[in-house]
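Thought: the user asked what Putative GntR family transcriptional regulator looks like in 3D. I have the sequence; next I should run the structure tool and report back without guessing.
Action: structure_tool
Action Input:
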Amino acid sequence: MPRHTRLVHLPLDTSDLTAKSIATQTVALIAGGQLADGDWLPSTRALADELGCSRTMVAAAYDELVAAGFLEGVPGSGTRTTSGAAAAAAAGLSSRPSEHAGVDSSRRPAASKYRAHQRNPTVDLRPGYPDTGLIDMRAWTRAWRAAGARTPTVSSPWQDASESFVAALTDHLRTNRGIDTDTVLDVPGSGAAFHAVAAVSGLTRCYVESPCYPAAYEEFLRAGLHPVFVPVDDDGLRVDQLGDAAGLVYCTPAHQYPLGHRLSVNRRAELVAWAKRTGSIIVEDDYDGEFRYGVAPLPAVRSVPGAGEHVAYIGTASKILTPGLGAAWLVPPRPLRDAVLAYLREHRLALPVTTRDALAELILTGDLQRHLARAAREYRHRRDILIAALGTHCPELSVLGVEAGLHVAVVLPRAHDDRHVAEQLSTHGFVVEPLSLYPGAVDGQINGLAVGFALIDRVSANGFAIRLAEALG
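Observation:
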């Protein structure tokens, strides 16, 4: 953010005012330089009075811009443009998908070698596990009861799409991730989605983040792709390190797995531009993009203009509800839509009908949105507990990835091998994952622990931090 912010006047055209036009004009002001990063905007009431429109209309426009990542609300202070908003607007990003974006014109690590398994751990702090105790069981039971009351279908789930499920997921993606699409395919887990896209892409090279999510890495190997590791930094995947050869690019832009960096807005635009230039396919694994803490949401890569031709968007219920559902969804690149659909049908990959119906019920009744809001508040509290405990007992350590997701990366001093530290912690009942064991981790460059906080409380957080301090001497 700039050192000095200013309250600005918004010279908006009032001839045809709608929430959409206010949002669109505001983005144009950012792109044109009239609004800079960190500038404070008028309050919704003040702007509504100035424009002669309802406060509800202005609030809806601000909400859209916040959801797209151009604005952020600061409690007790007001609303301002985010850091990076100017670069995003200049790159052509908007507060919503373009009218035709996403519309078809023709119509956790899985392998044991990456995990330190332990029987009956006292506290399991490995990333990837949500707290299923946060689920409202009345809403959960109601959704499954409604799904079970529907007349059974004679078709197999891979033969016939569920209209209610597609409609519900379409609305969920538009509302929560800014993605406008008419094609949402259900898949039994993100691994099936990775493999399906890889199998039909026609590509042999796979660019993956260094370090990388092991389950995805292994799926691409099974699909016969040749992996090429690409470094990440504080702004996420280093697009400038991709080279010129076409390939499939796997990335976790909302919360890089496992380091936790968020792919910056300008790099998202650069990544899509690179894919267009090289004829590549981007696999956007949005595994926990619904959870953010005190930062503006960044637009999904799939929502970048022109991304619909090159981005496969993958979401999952594993982090927002439970891995037990085995539920994921895939928005394929438009040119690969029919091929992906044929692959899923040929290999009989689909969610059980009742699971689809229950998920649709949770979304359409608003119960899922209420759960996400409740869970985000609780996870933020637990993250704060963990960070406070580490700050008290291990103040010299850096903690990455605190802005989003359900885990953080704790960077260890070079003098302490993360695998040895993890082993010491396990003897005291704290199970964590050494970063050096992740695929693509470069010896001597990545030394730390991936620590999940979804299941933590104040006692376990302090106990972990104390034991970690002891392990580090």
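Thought: the tool returned a structure. Summarizing for the user.
Final Answer: Structure for Putative GntR family transcriptional regulator predicted. The chain has three domains: 19-91, 123-133+370-472, 154-365. The first strand starts at residue 71 and ends at 74.
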